[in-house]
Amino acid sequence: MGIPMQVITTGWFSARCRDRDGSEQEIDTRLVGDLQAGDWLLVFTGAAREVLDTTRAADILAAIRALEAALNGDYRAEDHFADLLGREPTLPPHLQAAVKTQP
Known about the structure:
By secondary structure, this protein is of the alpha+beta class. It has one domain: Roll (SH3 type barrels), CATH 2.30.30.140. It is built from three helices and five strands. The chain has helices spanning about 55-70, 75-80, 95-100; strands at about 5-10, 15-20, 25-30, 40-45, 45-50. It has a five-stranded antiparallel beta sheet, with helices on one face.
């Protein structure tokens, strides 16, 4: 599972990054290109796989917290996914178009 980490400093094909618990690790960045301090990365097995915007990093971190709560027997949907409660799910635009063209 990929974990969001924030870049502290950059180096030659690597970056010093901080995880959600404050621990620091040296991360291989050869797959993502140039970075700056403050950037967010999706990290898997010690290598950055994707550069994330702040919103996407926060969403992934929230999902990880929800998973941890569920594993600890302390999960309540309204605490973790309040934005999904009380509404019907919607299809992405490319699937909505496919449904509209069905006879």
